[in-house]
From TrEMBL:
The lineage of its organism: Bacteria, Pseudomonadati, Pseudomonadota, Gammaproteobacteria, Pseudomonadales. Catalyzes cross-linking of the peptidoglycan cell wall. The chain crosses the membrane at residues 20-39. The keyword Amino-acid biosynthesis does not apply. This is Peptidoglycan D,D-transpeptidase MrdA. Coiled coil: none annotated. It comes from Marinobacter excellens HL-55.
Length: 631
């Protein structure tokens, strides 16, 4: 028997024991390491990993505040908020953005413009996990289609939000302005914290001027989400502070009346309450549907509006700069009397034209045969140009500009009307700088009747006329009447900066008002037909502004002139003359004569404000009282 056939049992046992001990030590060390790591994770670093976990599970979302509402002076709603459903994406949760957009476009009717706009916003700086809107105002059918495929699109949601809506859009578009989606430039200047979650901002008009008041303060909520980013529940919420509701001086009834009177024409109407400076009507016709701009107007729709020959996007009331024509004569009369260039008794011979020197150019009166001897009152009633030619040359450009500036020409004299232009009040220095020419006496001749370089807006004409109605007391035009909350109007209205226009002889105010009454009610007044049968006295002045110039001896034939080259028809005035309640300025583009076109429009506005509306209110009160009595 060989020695190798015998086993060394003791040696094998010792080897096994050594191996088992080694394995036990290794396993024990591994268990100790595992337990130590578990202790570190579960006990020592518990707070750290709980926070990291919550960041994946819990999100902080901004809650945009509801935008403040806007009412007219009679509490008719002019701007409200309505719920719409939008398709939004959280880029951090979307798996394959390009593929997702392509698939979504196959399910929903998403315009190429919306996709391009979304991609631009995707490239702009933004907060992490911020929802980006792709398509707005989804229909019920689109919402249903998206609900069927919802599980296929992580990071894509249908979100309900409040969006601005203008129930009287075309009537109020130019007065209120509109809101629109925040663009890149606006992102850089707004408070990123307070506008978190807000997609809209005021773009023009009241919406822009009072943006801070209307916007409110953002709120927040902590929400629990699943792995796909869908909200499971709201853990905590801090409610947003809604924007303040505004009440304007604007009267929706008068605004509608103004649009009706200008229907089918191009023009503007401004109506002001002289006691407060409140703007009762601000109409620019034709108008446009401001609701199209809220969620984003299509390229084709915008092209149609911007290329429309009637320019519906152009705010004629605030930005239309026209020669004021003879509507400037009441202000010129104040300047001439106060500067001593003329007196009430002074008479000037009108042969039908005016010459600076014998044999020189003839500046014609509109009435080619001439009015003979005329004083200031007759020249105002007849709208005689020769009288104002002579006193205008005697005053000179410096005196005329000095007085006209005190009426608010050459500046934006409003308190809260966003976008108003300043017109052009020419001076000798302006002409030298702009045209490198001296001021000629012939320039003063043109300026004295509101022609030449002189340009003004309808709002400026209404402001200047209100100064006459108030007998020199300045009340700067404003739209805001009240804020429905704890904040005062004075907190947001800019301070008035204009001093009263005090004349050397205060009776000159009444005299100039009398000359304007003569225009409407005098036997030779140019607008006496428009005032016929009125139960109150109107103080007014018609005007006709040339769109193009005639040669010295050329006759004007309206029928042979293309419609868009015809004269503009203008009117300024107030009523009642002795206790003014309303001031109006009207321009009808290419409307012809102010007395035949603009003055009847003014009469209809005066009748509505002074008679029709009060009568309707009385009838309504009587009906309500009778109804309560029957109960």
């Amino acid at each position: 028997m060989a020695w190798g056939e015998f086993k060394n049992t003791a040696a094998e046992r010792r080897l096994f024991q050594r191996r088992a001990l080694v394995m036990l030590i290794v396993v024990s060390m591994a268990m100790i390491g595992l337990l130590a790591r578990m202790y570190q994770l579960q006990i020592v670093e518990h707070d750290i990993y709980t926070t990291l976990s919550d960041k994946n599970r819990v999100q902080v979302q901004s809650v945009p505040p509801p935008r403040g509402l806007v009412y007219d002076r009679n509490n008719f709603l002019l701007a409200e908020n309505r719920p719409v459903f939008s398709l939004t994406l959280v880029p951090e949760r979307v798996d394959g953005m390009e593929a997702t957009l392509t698939r979504l476009a196959g399910i929903l009717d998403i315009a190429e413009e919306d996709i391009e706009r979304f991609q631009r916003r995707l490239r702009e700086p933004r907060r992490p996990f911020q929802e980006l809107p792709l398509s707005y105002d989804l229909s019920e059918e689109e919402i249903a289609r998206m609900a069927v495929h919802r599980h296929e699109f992580p990071g894509v949601e249908i979100k309900a939000e409040l969006v601005r809506y203008y129930p009287h859009s075309e009537l109020t578009a130019h007065a209120l302005g509109f809101v629109g989606r925040i663009n890149r430039e606006e992102l850089q200047r707004i408070d990123a914290v307070n506008y978190a979650g807000t997609n809209y901002i005021g773009k023009s008009g009241i919406e822009r001027f009072y943006e801070q008041v209307l916007h409110g303060a953002v709120g927040y909520q902590h929400v629990e989400t699943n792995a796909r980013g869908r909200i499971l529940r709201v853990l905590e919420r801090v409610n947003p502070v809604p924007g303040e509701d505004l009440q304007l001086h604007l009267d929706l009834r008068l605004q509608r009346k103004a649009h009706e009177l200008l229907s089918g024409r191009r023009g503007a109407i401004i109506a002001i309450e002289p006691d407060t400076g409140g703007i009762l009507a601000l109409a620019s016709v034709p108008g446009f549907d401001a609701n199209k701009f809220v969620t984003g107007i299509s390229v084709n729709e915008y092209r149609d509006l911007s290329e429309d020959i009637d320019k519906p996007l152009f705010n004629r009331a605030l930005r239309g700069q026209y020669p004021p024509g003879s509507t400037i004569k009441p202000m010129m009369a104040v300047a001439a009397l106060d500067s001593g260039a003329t007196t009430r008794e002074r008479r000037i011979w009108d042969p039908g034209y005016f010459q600076l020197r014998e044999g020189g150019r003839r500046f014609r009166n509109w009435y080619r045969s001439g009015d003979g001897w005329v004083d200031l009152k007759t020249s105002m009633a007849r709208s005689n140009d020769v009288y104002f030619y002579e006193v205008g040359v005697e005053m000179g450009v410096d005196v005329m500009s000095q007085y006209l500036a005190q009426f608010g020409f050459g500046e934006d004299a409003t308190l809260d009307v966003s976008g108003a232009l300043s017109g052009l009040l020419p001076t000798a220095d302006w002409k030298r700088g702009a045209r490198n020419e001296p001021w000629y006496p012939g320039d003063s001749v043109n300026m004295s009747i509101g022609q030449g370089f002189f340009l003004s807006t309808p709002l400026q004409l209404a402001t200047a006329t209100a100064l006459i109605a108030n007998r020199g007391e300045w009340v700067e035009p404003r739209l805001l009447k009240d804020i429905r909350g704890d904040r005062s109007v004075e907190e947001f209205l800019p301070e008035e900066t204009h001093e009263p226009l005090i004349l050397k002889n205060l009776d000159d105010w009444e005299y100039v008002v009398d000359t304007m009454v003569e225009v409407m009610h005098g036997p030779r007044g140019t607008a006496r037909a428009a005032a016929q049968g009125a139960s109150y006295q109107i103080a007014g002045k018609t005007g006709t502004a040339q769109v193009f110039s005639l040669a010295e001896d050329e006759e004007y034939d309206e029928e042979q002139v293309r419609e868009r080259l015809r004269d503009h028809a203008l009117f300024v005035g107030f009523a009642p003359a002795d206790d003014p309640k309303i001031v109006v300025a009207i321009i009808v583009e290419n409307g012809g004569g102010g007395s035949s076109t603009a003055a009847p429009v003014a009469r209809a506005l005066f009748d509505a404000w002074l008679e029709d509306f009060p009568a309707a209110e009385q009838d309504a009160m009587f009906t309500q009282t009778a109804s309560e009595g029957n109960r």
